[in-house]
Amino acid sequence: MLVKAARTWIRRNAGTATESADAVVVGAGAVGLAVARELALRGRDVLVVESAGTFGTGTSSRNSEVIHAGIYYPPGTLKARLCVRGKELLYRYCFEREIPHRQIGKLIVATRAAEVSKLEDIMRNGTENGVEGLRLIEGSEAMKMESELQCVKALLSPSSGIVDSHSLMLSLVGEAENSGTTLSYNTTVIGGHVEGNHLYLHFSESKALQNHAEDCAVLPQLILSPRVVINSAGLSAVPLAKRFQGLSHGTIPAAYYARGCYFTLSKTRFPPFSHLIYPIPEDGGLGVHVTLDLNGLVKFGPDVQWIDGMDDTSTFLNRFDYTVNSDHSARFYPEIRKYYPNLKDGSLEPGYSGIRAKLSGPRQPPQDFVIQGEDVHGIPGLVNLFGIESPGLTSCLAIAEYVVSKLSK
Ligand SMILES: Cc1cc2nc3c(=O)[nH]c(=O)nc-3n(C[C@H](O)[C@H](O)[C@H](O)COP(=O)(O)OP(=O)(O)OC[C@H]3O[C@@H](n4cnc5c(N)ncnc54)[C@H](O)[C@@H]3O)c2cc1C
Ligand SMILES: *[C@@H]1O[C@H](CO)[C@@H](O)[C@H](O)[C@H]1NC(C)=O
Ligand SMILES: *[C@@H]1O[C@H](CO)[C@@H](O)[C@H](O)[C@H]1NC(C)=O
Questions:
Q1: Where is the signal peptide (predicted)?
Q2: Separation between Cα atoms, residue 365 and residue 380, nearest integer Å
Q3: What CATH number corresponds to the domain at position 403?
Q4: Does residue 272 lie in a domain region?
Q5: Burial readout 187-196 (b: 16 or more C-beta within 10 A, e: otherwise)
Q6: Maximum Cα–Cα distance for the chain, whole Å?
């Protein structure tokens, strides 16, 4: 019973298995779903293929769920532009559909005099990026807003917030389906080939891969030649693109992976903070920060643990190690106490972890999102989405807009 949803979709597209088809989106995370919805709203017949048994089991459900303001990223980058635009679209989307979210604001804090100049840099970039309402405030003012906070100066970002990512994705799925999108779960894209400037996608049931040797010599159970292919496979977008035979490998960036672990705060009746609290960003991430979820749970994280890549099949099947080692809490306490000195011993419990899809390694400068269309690789209709780490959740609706605009050029 190969990929029943896909077969039905193919029949509707009036093609045999290797003939042309309309649009295929690889990956049902927040980004793939937002793109699928956008394509479907514009009249395309969309198939979303997802290797897992349902949507949103990858990075999209393993993050801070913060609606980022767009402060950190160098002006003019895709991260800066798509975050600021995405935030606007996301607040409106959530408001109109009653998706749980709250604009609680954020304080980025300098805990030592030496950090104040960094705060000023961040403020300058943020303002240039078009983030409204940013304000540098004295430590005393910040500590009046948050009685448990310790800092010498802070940057207040009133447009930052939190969102329930599962409700968001559920809504995107619903709207995509209402516009005729088909979702095929337990279906993996194992590669593809280019023939006459056209990309053919190779599919297999995920089950067929599960017990297979690591080099993934599995034969495709289905081959399709869609007009449009969006590779939004998250952590596996790079290894998947490398399996598109005939796609120039020179255009595909190197992939790096960095795990981020969260600890939750136990034994508190009331959350100690009402804003998101972020230290100055560190190498590879934004620093061990305080996030609140919509149920009032307080989380600290994520840290940065660089991990080695895996074989392709394991990335397709999301076999990353998500274990949160409770020993790591020893490193969290001193980090957190820099701005939250009253954090009690024994109050941190292992939470969950997520893995960042990075395009730069340890001690290398951060990279921008890489979104490549025909202009880069020469294959009409193919868009590869690489390095969609934070702020990818915030940006998902803007990424969708951007991808569709790339296709219509
Ligand atoms: C620790 C951490 C914290 C973060 N915090 C924030 C935050 O607060 N705010 C924010 O805006 N962003 C944040 N992000 C970033 C955000 O989570 C991601 O940018 C976003 O979720 C990426 O979505 P995606 O759809 O690209 O990827 P994913 O959600 O990973 O979806 C990709 C999907 O593709 C599927 N797939 C993979 N390979 C194949 C294949 N070969 N065939 C079929 N399907 C396949 C996977 O199973 C998966 O479901 C954070 C990320 C991390 C790791
Ligand atoms: C996906 O596979 C799992 C495990 O084999 C199975 O339990 C589940 O019902 C499948 N889901 C779909 C939508 O086919
Ligand atoms: C601000 O932007 C510049 C590029 O204009 C970049 O080099 C720098 O790293 C950014 N600083 C911060 C703190 O984000």
A1: none
A2: 31
A3: 3.50.50.60
A4: no
A5: bbbbbbbbee
A6: 69
Q: Report if residue 327 sits inside a domain.
A: no
CB-ligand 1 contact for 293 (6 Å cutoff): no
Q: Which residue among 125, 131, 360 is best mutated to probe the pocket of ligand 3, counting the most ligand atoms within 8 A of its Cβ?
A: 125
Q: Is 53 in the pocket of ligand 2 (CB under 6 A)?
A: yes
Which ligand minimizes its atom distance to the CA of 119?
3
Strands 106-110 and 289-292: unpaired
H-type alpha helices, 183-236: 206-210
Domain count, the chain: 1
The model's pLDDT over 164-220, given as tens digits with 9 standing for 90+, comes to 999 999 999 999 999 999 999 999 999 999 999 899 999 999 999 987 655 556 789
Domain membership flag for residue 292: no
Domain that holds residue 41: 4-61+167-252+367-408
Name the pTM for this structure.
0.95
More confident residue, 296 or 192: 192
Give me the numbers of helices (H) and strands (E) for the chain, helices first please: 12, 21
For residue 290, how many other CB atoms are within 10 A of its CB? 26
Nearest to 102 by CA among 39, 167, 196: 167
Query: What's the pLDDT at 1?
Result: 40
Q: Which atom of ligand 2 lies at the shortest distance from residue 54's CA?
A: 13
